[in-house]
Write a structure and sequence with these properties.
The strands form 3 sheets. Strands 3-6-9-12-14-15 form a 6-stranded mixed β-sheet. It has a 5-stranded parallel β-sheet with strand order 1-4-7-10-13. The termini are far apart. Strand 14 (239-243) and strand 15 (246-251) form a beta hairpin. It has helices at residues 13-28, 33-41, 46-58, 65-78, 80-96, 104-109, 111-127, 131-145, 257-260; strands at 147-149, 154-155, 160-161, 167-169, 174-175, 180-181, 186-188, 200-201, 206-207, 212-214, 218-219, 224-225, 230-231, 239-243, 246-251. Helix 1 (13-28) runs antiparallel to helix 2 (33-41), helix 5 (80-96) packs antiparallel against helix 7 (111-127) and helix 7 runs antiparallel to helix 8. The longest helix has 17 residues, at 80-96. The chain is an alpha/beta fold.
């Protein structure tokens, strides 16, 4: 017996909102109509739009847009988590960045978001054993966006990298969910040793501009690292650290530092910093 129930399209509120914002943006600024149509309105899903942006931004004489588009489409088709992570990243940026007023802004204009989505494709390639292609993506992301994330690094959902200039995340680094970091952050090693040598960042951590976190150390969940700090020792959960080298100067001050984005050192023991 034939099924007479109507086929319902899956609900995607993030993509629906982006399309609505894109249509309004074309009316408000017709000169961007070509870009907005090609990047957003011509696509049936956020994943297809992200694959297009990936190919447009990373294409060069060494690898064409068509090949990069096929790579990205394959990745998004094989791993639905890539699209869900992108949605979480968009919502994180919209919620935490006061300069972000629409969902379409990260997709079209924010290099931090675009770099992270490209890293996610590179990470998928790495896990598929396609290491040289993953390295190629890393190289192009570094050249185009000034963001150098090793494809083996593990990064959770809801990441916001504000301004995203001179970001370095090493091979064995782990970044949890709902982390926020600003420009010039390094999650690096302490020398030329091999093996597990990079930081492990817990959920909900806020890392200030220019902070360097070095070595195989754990930064506890919902902690804060003040701008310009050099962190060489493990940080317990829900603490604030500051200085060179960094030391604990107080509590984190709130339940979700990465969401509140409050980087002021209030009521901290900072006398000898």
């Amino acid at each position: 017996m034939r099924d007479l129930k109507p086929k319902l399209s899956p609900v995607d509120p993030v993509w629906s909102r982006i399309r609505d914002e894109a249509a309004a943006a074309v009316v408000a600024e017709p000169l961007l109509g070509g870009l907005i149509h090609a990047s957003l309105l011509h696509h049936a899903s956020l994943e297809r739009a992200l694959a297009y942006r990936f190919s447009q931004k990373l294409a060069s004489s060494e690898m064409s847009e068509q090949i990069l588009r096929e790579i990205a489409d394959e990745a998004y088709g094989a791993d639905p988590d890539l699209g869900q992570a992108a949605r979480a990243d968009i919502m994180a940026i919209y919620d935490r960045d006061p300069a972000c007023h629409r969902f379409l802004q990260p997709v079209l204009f924010f290099k931090g978001f675009q770099a992270v989505q490209a890293y996610r494709i590179g990470h998928w390639l790495w896990n598929q054993g396609r290491r040289d292609l993953a390295y190629f993506v890393q190289m192009r992301v570094s050249e185009v966006f000034g963001v150098d994330i090793h494809p083996a690094a593990r990064i959770g959902r809801g990441l916001m990298i504000d301004h995203a200039h001179s970001i370095v995340i090493g091979e064995t680094a782990v970044v949890g969910d709902n982390v926020s970091m600003l420009h010039s952050v390094t999650l690096g090693g302490t020398g030329k040793e091999d093996g597990d040598r990079h930081p492990k960042i817990g959920d909900g951590v806020l890392i200030g501009a220019g902070a360097k976190v070095l070595g195989n150390i754990t930064i506890g969940h919902c902690s804060r690292i003040a701008a310009g700090s050099v962190v060489l020792m493990e940080v317990p959960p829900c603490k604030t650290v500051a200085g060179v080298p960094a030391k604990i100067v107080g509590e984190a001050g709130c339940a979700q530092p990465s969401v509140s984005m409050d980087q002021r050192l209030k009521d901290c023991d900072c006398g000898d910093l």
